[in-house]
């Protein structure tokens, strides 16, 4: 075997002391650790016969097929390991959904390119899995390539921070507080990854990712070209962006511009935001957070009712979806194992055994009741994957 290929396999954790070639089959032990474990947490070693199929090395281990896909054209880049029929529910905060036809991880830009190239060669759609905290996956799973984003580098230069897409958003906010950099405190407690937060322009309490984003690096899925996009090119809107509307653009990193501040004060603001969230006791629920976007309401009487009831002014004519759902009398409404959270009506939760179908039926019921009783149309904030009525994609936050 080509020594560079063996080196590539070893770089993936597929280390072998000896290698025998017999009719294009290779007896290799496969240690499930490091990158080869694709984030699934397996340990131990499995042995089997590797089959050379085109540019792939295939090994069947139990019910999974694992593909080592070395990059023959660029011997210095990382290869990827692909698994077949991997359940996706454990990668989402809903804990709902079927299996992906193929599953891999991207821990480097080279691996991300290889993963996208694999999907293209197989003629399959792809999806990017971030934190999985804003994603509902079909019970039938995803007939494509699920790519778990694990680019997790952070670089600090003055009041600017370059964070890759796989960085945990809350961990990044804690780090900005330690550095005395202000601007992200209101986002504290939002689960998910930086990539998902940029894609969905995540926000809370009057602040959002667009407020601090100076530049986004994105990989074009077809050309595999790395693009540098200014905020105007990102088309940020309320809980939306160009990346959410165009699945061919995969967020790689974001350059965030923050303001110098006192570390103690920044930390205090961050902790106050987290405490405000924790007071609602929602952290242990199996949910995707806010299921619906806060809609723009044009009915002056409904706006007056909200402002009187809540004692606050309506910002930009947007009324919280949770208040509207509550006004429709839907708290604690259930469809099978899916339920409207009794503490926050915009949280649809999995009570333990909900299916995606039940969650969709509950969401449809909520939308219909709010429309019929209040004249307001709700739109989902949660992304969906694997359903026949939508183009499969997603970079979960």
Can you tell me about this structure?
The protein is of the alpha+beta class. The protein folds into 3 domains: 3-149, Uridine Diphospho-n-acetylenolpyruvylglucosamine Reductase, domain 2 (2-Layer Sandwich); 154-264, Uridine Diphospho-n-acetylenolpyruvylglucosamine Reductase, domain 3, CATH 3.30.465; 292-380, UDP-N-acetylenolpyruvoylglucosamine reductase, C-terminal domain (Uridine Diphospho-n-acetylenolpyruvylglucosamine Reductase, domain 1), CATH 3.90.78. Helix content is 25%, strand content 29%. It is built from 10 helices and 24 strands. It has a 9-stranded mixed β-sheet, covered by helices on one side. A 5-stranded antiparallel β-sheet has the order 11-12-18-16-17. Strand 22 and strand 23 (347-350) form a beta hairpin. Helix 3 (169-178) packs antiparallel against helix 7. The longest helix has 19 residues, at 356-374. It is globular and about 70 Å long. 45% of the residues are buried.
